[in-house]
What we know:
Elements: H1 10-26, H2 34-40, H3 43-54, H4 60-71, H5 80-101, H6 104-120, H7 126-143, H8 146-165, H9 169-185, H10 193-201, H11 208-225, H12 229-242, H13 250-266, H14 270-286, H15 290-307, H16 310-352
Amino acid sequence: MKNRALKIDGTAFIVALLTLCCSIMSHASSQPPLFHVLERQPSSWLLSEGLRYANDPARPDSALLTLSVLVNRYDKKAPKAECLSIAKAYTYQAFVYIFRYYDYAKAYECLLHAKEISKAIGCELPSVYLNFGHIFSSIGEQSGDRTTMTKALWYMRKAFRVSVSEKKHNLANIAFGNAMSLAWNLNRLNDLEKEWKIYCSLKNTDSEEFVRFNTIYYKILQQLRMKHYDNALRLLDSQVSLMPDDASHVRYVCLALFNKARVYAMQHDYQAGISNLKLCLALGIKFDLKDVNLETCQYISDYYTTLGNRDSMIEYRNRYFSLKDMLIGYQQVASIKEMSFMDDLRKVNNLMA
Length: 353
């Protein structure tokens, strides 16, 4: 489970642009179309606006439009700063595909572009490794494939080290938190001892609650290694109370509740585990976290199986399969929508030219 920037509808927006483009050809005094305005913006502005839209769950189309204008500027002969902005824009697009559309194939393609550009200019972007980690983590969690999760752990550790080197402490926190979750799942907590020493030595400039969350998380995992389950549960309660249940923190709250359920299961208290999973599911539904809901329903179903409650097991197993089908369908629809969206974008480019 992963932890952690006027709405413009992409289709309506493109239609409006096409109408305006046609209008400008016959009315010299017309105002320039918005797309033309975007094309005239500096790369730094497009990058910051694209990031703002990417962090807004309601504006993924706006993010893709703004970032597409920027990545379409790529030229191998462009200045290093321009190429770096374009590489970052590709990572923001990947973020949108991972967390808004759940289209991991498209996200992977964006990251390959970002990696190629950053390598060409001699830079390492921690967000490239971080988002690769998110992709493999999501696939590994949904499939239960340890090889894929092992690859995700490698990327998260790499993202952490590069983030520290670049003093991107917010990314370092995200990477280290995800690395801890993966290491727990893979029973490889010893692998993170070097990272923990580095983490403790950081003069971390990220928001305090994220630093405290990770610090508590590491202590929780140490308590679990010693089978001190009650101590772990108390620390997990402090994690839950640390984070508000808003869009910026909800994945952290869900992670803590999810982990509480796992610890209760270690004590064979599956009913308490289910209670915490249902709290997690309620937040996932409220904030439309499709990947969280999928994994949570799977665990609820498994716990009901252990309790011998067949009716509830079937109910949540059906919800799990329904969510999985919906997620696959959502990915396909998003992919088709994006292809159509980019085709319209190319038409506007040609018309403006």
